Amino acid sequence: MQCRKCRADIPGDGKFCPYCGIRQDREPRKALKRANGAGTVYKLQGRRRRPWAAAKNRTIIGCYETKTAALEALNRLTGRSLDERYNMTFTDVFEAWKTEHYKEIGPNGIASYNRAYDVFEPLHKKKFRDLRTADFQAVLDPYMKQSHSTLSKHKQLITQMSCWAVREELLATNFAKFVRLPENIKKEKEIFSDTDIEKLEADGSETAKIILMLIYTGMRIGELFFLPLKDYHETYVVGGEKTEAGRNRVIPIRPEGRGYFAYFAAQADGPLLLSGYTGQCVPNNFRKRDYYPLLDKLGIERKTPHATRHTYASRARKVGMPPEILQKILGHADYSTTANIYVHTDVDELVRAVERD
Length: 357
Fold this sequence. Notes:
By secondary structure, this protein is mostly helical. 43% of the residues lie in helices and 6% in strands.
C-alpha cells in the first residue's frame, strides 16, 4: 500500500510510514470540549424523532433532530442566564404570547382569550416550564360542564402559549395538548324554514326586517349592528369581523333583502346603518328583548340569531353557489369550516340524492 502522505510503498499492515512517520489509520476527530457553564449536548436512548438534548445547568432546554441544531440552541444562550427567560411565569408567557397573537385577531377573539386567561388564575404566578398536563387538567376539571366550545377556547389558549414556549425554547414538550376535554357531541344546527321566513316577511316589523337582513346576507349579528352606513352600497356591503379572512369582505345582499337594507339606510340618524332602529341596538339586548319575543309571537321555534347564518349557507348550497364564493361571503379562511359547520342537508334532499338515476 502507499503512504497517505508521501505516497511511498509501505507494508500493508504498517500503522506508520517508515519514511515520513505519518500514521496511516486516521483517528476520529474528538469534539471540542465546551467551556464550563456553556452547556452540553448528548444523545438520548431509543428511537426518537428528536434524539439530541441540549442542557444547561442541568436543565434541558430542548430536544432536536440533529446535534448541530442542539449546539445552535446552546450558542443562542451564550452570555445569558437561564433566569432571564426560563423563570417566566404563566402570566409572563401570556403577556409575551398575546403581544404577537392579538395583532391577528378581532376584539371578540381577544375577549375570549382574556376570559380563558382568568380561568387559569391558580397558575398565574407559577413558572411556566414547571407546569405539566396534570396542572392544566386540574384547573379545567371544575369547568367540565361548560359548553365544549368554551372549554376548547380554554385549551386553545394554553396550547398556543405552550407552542410559543417551545418555539422560544422554554419547553421541550407541549404538555397542554394532552389535556382531556369531554366528548363533543355535535348537534345538528337549526335553520329557518321557508315557512318561518314567510312569517317574518309577513310581519313587517323592524325586528323582522333585521332578522331577514341576516338571513339574506349570512352576516353575523355583530357585523350587521356595527356596520357603518358608508359601507352600504345598495346591492352589497363591505364589513366583517373575527378573522383576517372575515374582515373587510364584500358581502352581497340577496335581491329579497335589498329593500330591508334600503329601509334602514333611509332611517339612519347616525354613522351606523342601524342607527335609526327603534328597538334594542346592542346585540345582546336585541336577542333578549326583540329577537326571541318576536319568534315567540310568530310561533317560530326558538333558534339563536346565528341560525340565520346557517340558513344562508344551506340555501346558497342548494341553489348551487360555488363553494369558493360561499367561503368568501361567509369570511372563512378554510372551506372545511363552511362545509362542516354551516352547510346543512335535509332529509328530503338526502332521499332525492339516492333516487337519482
